[in-house]
Amino acid sequence: MTMVQAMFYLMGFITLASGLFIAISKNLVRSVFMFFVTLMALAGLYVLALADFIAITQIVVYVGGILVLIVFAFMLSGRETLANLQQQQSKFIRIKKLPAILLAVLFFIVMINVLFKTNFDGLPWIQQAIAQKNTIGTNDAMIGNIGVGLMTHYLLPFEAISILLMMALVGAAHISRKEKGI
Amino acid sequence: MNFYLKYFIVAIGLFAFSGFFALFGVYAERKVSAFIQDRLGPTETGKFGLLQTLADVIKLLIKEPIIPAAADKLLFMMAPAIIFVAVYMGFAAIPWAGGLMPANLNLGLYYIFAILSVETLGILMAGWGSNNKYSILGAMRSAAQIISYEIPAGFAIISVVMIAQTLNLQTISTQQGILSAEHSKFLGIWDVSTNGGILSWNIFRAPHLIVAFIIYFIASLAESNRAPFDIPEAESELVAGFHTEFTGMRFAFVFLAEYSMMFLVSMIAVVLFLGAWNTPLPNIGVVNLADWTTGGAWGILWTVVKVLVLVGVQIWIRWTVPRFRVDQLMNLCWKVLTPLAFICMLVSGVWRLWVM
């Protein structure tokens, strides 16, 4: 087993174990902080797949932004509300959860099916990319490609997302401003 | 195995350095504050009180670690480690001299920016884990402040990246001196590729970066929770903010993180704006000062000197400027620094396209 493989299995194990902890744990705040571990391990997996830009972006967006916002929401909501939220029924399988279980099991079956039916080494687009030497090495700078791609091929989705974010910003500013005369 | 051993040695060396710097930094801070307030500062322990911080560290190490009964023990114990590790990991991608750099990452700058945002989470963890109103208030203030000031800092950094056209910190450093492969122009008019020195630093290659540098410097003060932006640990209202409950070793780690953060943000400022490891002395005629003072140990010397000057300015500001109020802090960030940083970014684009 090479170092890379060992790292892959280690990261994979951490991702899965922390993910399970998040799903099972009754302590909401702890599971949020555990989510941080999941995200870091996932970033490690991205790095192993030579997608370092995505790995770092994930840390910036999820750890630096979304996780902090979630914790903020916890801190503003107070401990009593949280305590009420945490009093879940202890039974694992209940009739109310049937749709969720059904969905999860079906999705799992689909995933397993895909996993076993695909021959990952023989995928045509991978073969084609190898034949055309259209691959990236460990030391290639990918950021130029991403920039050019965003400004040419994917300009419309990029702009659409910008407008969406702009709307969210305007909405947030509107909600948080002072009401006049009330 | 030697390959991995090298990385261990580098990591341990950086850790030792940050510990040493924290010792030295606390002493310097106390002496400078004493000078500014017309006091003497530490004088008793060792010559000129030089051993004072060492004694403090020994005191902290042998102190009893107290965990409040109502605290979330796991989060409480993990928090100082996460705060420190986030800062410490930032050192991995910063060049000390030409060719001397722990990890030569293509996305070095972005990586540092990302890893520093983990510190916020550590602070929130400390605040929540302590289960103390002061701590939670401090942590929330700190998180709000760091997230807000990341925006002007980010745009100031982007305006440098637009000039440098790379995120690799070693490449950015090399561009700002006589070793640069491309032509660099002083203020966009005078070709100084062979002169080097202070003339080819980023802030003089593109003068609007002086504004970006000031924006970044102010934002970096806020990000490392230094006065005048130290409302997260405002002594007069919050006792000590998010680290109220920490004692002994854990408190030492929080402190270590603060001083490492000071060094790290100054180092980023030096690399991006002030010529990194390049000499400030230009070649003038036959006196090739820049050629004589470039390469080898000179690089480390220039980096450390420049960074220490910036750290000195941070300390100086801390003891002269009074603390901001929360609304003043947010006003400064959103109404002054952010628009200015946007303008800097625009000017950078224009400068790169038409002047350089």
Considering the chains and any ligands shown, give keywords for the structure.
heterodimer; A: 182 residues; mainly alpha; Four Helix Bundle (Hemerythrin (Met), subunit A); 2 domains; B: 356 residues; two-stranded antiparallel ribbon
| CATH fold name of the largest domain in chain A | Four Helix Bundle (Hemerythrin (Met), subunit A)
Q: Assign an overall shape of chain B.
A: globular
Work out the helicity level of chain B: 55-70%
Class of the largest domain in chain A, according to the CATH hierarchy?
Answer: Mainly Alpha
Q: Quick check: average pLDDT of chain B? A: 84
Assembly status: heterodimer
Order of helices and strands of chain B: HHHHHHEEHHHHEEHHH
Please give the count of helices of chain A.
7
Based on Cα principal axes, name the global outline of chain A.
extended
Secondary-structure element order of chain A, as H and E? HHHHHHH
Break the fold down into its secondary structure elements and pairings.
The complex is a heterodimer of chains A (182) and B (356).
Chain A: H1 3-24, H2 28-48, H3 52-86, H4 98-117, H5 124-131, H6 143-151, H7 155-176
Helix pairs in contact in A: 1-2, 2-3
Chain B: H1 2-36, H2 52-61, H3 73-90, H4 108-130, H5 133-164, H6 169-175, E1 185-186, E2 190-191, H7 202-205, H8 208-223, H9 235-238, H10 248-273, E3 283-284, E4 287-288, H11 289-292, H12 297-318, H13 326-355
Antiparallel strand pairs in B: 1-2, 3-4
Describe the overall structure.
The complex is a heterodimer of chains A (182) and B (356). Chain A is built from seven helices and no strands. By secondary structure, chain A is mainly α. Chain A folds into two domains: 3-140, Up-down Bundle (Four Helix Bundle (Hemerythrin (Met), subunit A)), CATH 1.20.120.1200; 141-182. The mean pLDDT of chain A is 83. Chain B is built from 13 helices and four strands. Helices cover 65% and strands 2% of the residues of chain B. In chain B, the strands form two sheets. Chain B has a two-stranded antiparallel ribbon with strand order 1-2. Chain B has 356 residues and is mainly alpha-helical. The radius of gyration of chain B is 21 Å and the shape is globular. Chain B has two domains: 1-62; 68-355, no CATH class.
